[in-house]
């Protein structure tokens, strides 16, 4: 009997510790969620308030000053709409170019052997490791020398330089996960390398391509440093610069800053909601019988 009661006590103690650990985990997750969501909720709430009510104490998420005036002010200003148009043009162009180059480059690195392959791969990784701020002055000099300063082309080229290395690494790694038996089977049937890429690998590479595309679009859309340095006029500036310009010398239009930030977050959010199903991996599993 004493032994049985001891075992029962140990079992109950283990259950209690497991329950306590589970409760502690849930509490930590709740606090983590609050910590992550609170800034977004505060930004959303501030965008519907008048500028003088944002810093009232105690703070209120919704008060009597609730209105759409900040959104109306932002969207009725042609200059602000120009910022959004510029961001769309630059980000979509950078995404298209980066995806196209990364697709071919990743396929070449994954499926073919050629001279200096390892050296080129190391260089690409090395470029990714260089802090962008160290290249600011050289890029500025290059853009001025080639008359690309304050142009869409200059900003697009600059963004591609910083998004392409990581995109190539991602696509190479994704192609490496696809079974080579797919290539071999298509080659036996007489398919060329281009046919293998477009008809076999690209259709089942949707998760990798979507991941690269979303990453590239997000980086280009949110980029601030080079967009500030390489553009001079409002007809070439992007949304991050427009948000910064809302902060005047004597007063800050915080409600319009928050409204513009919300509007600037919507494109990336929509893309994630549309393409989230493509992140489910394993599209290639089962394509080849083991």
Description:
The chain has helices spanning 2-47, 69-75, 78-111, 117-129, 136-145, 152-177, 181-188, 193-204, 206-222, 225-229, 239-245, 254-275. It is an all-alpha fold. The radius of gyration is 26 Å and the shape is flat. Residues 281-290 have low confidence and may be disordered.
| Weakly predicted, low-confidence segments | 281-290
- Quantity of strands, as a count: 0
Provide a count of the helices: 12
Ends apart, CA distance between termini:
55 Å
Family: Belongs to the binding-protein-dependent transport system permease family.
Membrane topology: Multi-pass membrane protein
Keywords: Cell membrane, Membrane, Transmembrane, Transmembrane helix, Transport
Subcellular location: Cell membrane
């Amino acid at each position: 009997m004493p032994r049985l009661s001891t075992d029962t006590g140990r079992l109950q103690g283990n259950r209690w510790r497991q329950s306590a650990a589970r409760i502690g985990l849930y509490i930590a997750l709740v606090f983590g969620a609050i910590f992550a969501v609170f800034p977004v909720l505060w930004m959303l709430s501030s965008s519907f308030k008048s500028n003088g009510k944002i810093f009232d104490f105690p703070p209120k998420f919704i008060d009597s000053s609730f209105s759409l005036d900040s959104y109306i002010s932002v969207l009725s200003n042609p200059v602000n709409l120009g910022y959004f148009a510029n961001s769309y043009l630059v980000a979509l162009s950078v995404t298209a170019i980066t995806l196209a180059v990364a697709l071919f480059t990743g396929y070449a690195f994954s499926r073919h052997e050629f001279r200096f392959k390892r050296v080129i791969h190391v260089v690409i990784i090395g470029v990714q490791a260089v802090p962008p701020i160290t290249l600011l002055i050289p890029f500025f000099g290059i853009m001025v020398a080639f008359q690309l300063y304050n142009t869409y082309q200059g900003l697009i080229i600059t963004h591609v330089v910083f998004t392409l290395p990581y995109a190539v690494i991602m696509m190479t790694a994704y192609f490496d996960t696809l079974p080579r038996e797919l290539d071999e089977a298509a080659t036996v049937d007489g398919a060329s390398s281009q046919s293998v890429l477009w008809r076999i690998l690209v259709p089942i590479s949707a998760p990798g391509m979507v991941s690269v595309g979303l990453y590239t679009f997000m980086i280009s859309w949110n980029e601030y440093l080079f967009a500030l340095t390489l553009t001079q006029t409002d007809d070439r500036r992007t949304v991050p610069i427009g948000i910064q310009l809302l902060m005047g010398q004597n007063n800050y239009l915080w409600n319009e800053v928050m409204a513009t930030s919300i509007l600037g977050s919507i494109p990336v959010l929509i893309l994630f909601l549309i393409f989230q199903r493509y992140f489910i991996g394993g599209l290639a599993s089962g394509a080849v019988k083991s």
